[in-house]
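Pasting as-is:
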Amino acid sequence: MSSPSIEELPESRLGTKEHWDTVYAREVENYDDHGEEGEVWFGEDAVEKMVDWVLDNVELSPPTKVLDIGTGNGHLLFSLLSSIPPTHLTGVDYSPASVDLCRRIGAGRAEAGEEGADAVQFGEMDVLDPAEVKRVGDGEWGLVLDKGTYDAICLTPTDPNAPASEKPSAIYPQRVAALLKRGGYFLITSCNFTENEIKSRFTSGTGLSYHSRVPHPTFSFGGQTGARVCTVAFQKEA
């Protein structure tokens, strides 16, 4: 059951596969026509903060296996390429057009001289499907990344009569925990939830515990202080 202090987000087309298929099909055309890789969700600063956290907190020798859920255009993984071998970097998305875009970008970067960019692995996966989680490798990943994916999943249209435990917002944390090996890390950046809400959702019955946070610039309004996004790290029990 969801925490009583956390409200479900209203349904939106941003939570549908059809929307993202359309978005990334357009991005593929744009990349082919103009060489533009597409939008960087939450901006480069958020990406840099996630990469810095990984370098500061994750044991990379020997390299760990990294899975980026809802990889989009693969930008976060390409940003890790200088520190982690491409054979240990995998991005998944439920949109085949996203996967196509990532592979094209990887090939283009490699052609431009970025060593290993075309060896980063990309594939389709619906993280809410337990069979897909098993196929991709439950219990195998040392680091799972999420930059905006949980935000979109929480907008998915659902049966209003379904119990809270069957909503995508409740299923997703369980799937993430299943993918991680013992002692592995989950790093998430969200714009739709506060840090405390993310903590509550990902530590309830998952075997994950709060590890650390990444600070972001804050603003004040109406006597309250907040940030545009939050980045929170969890670790699976060893």
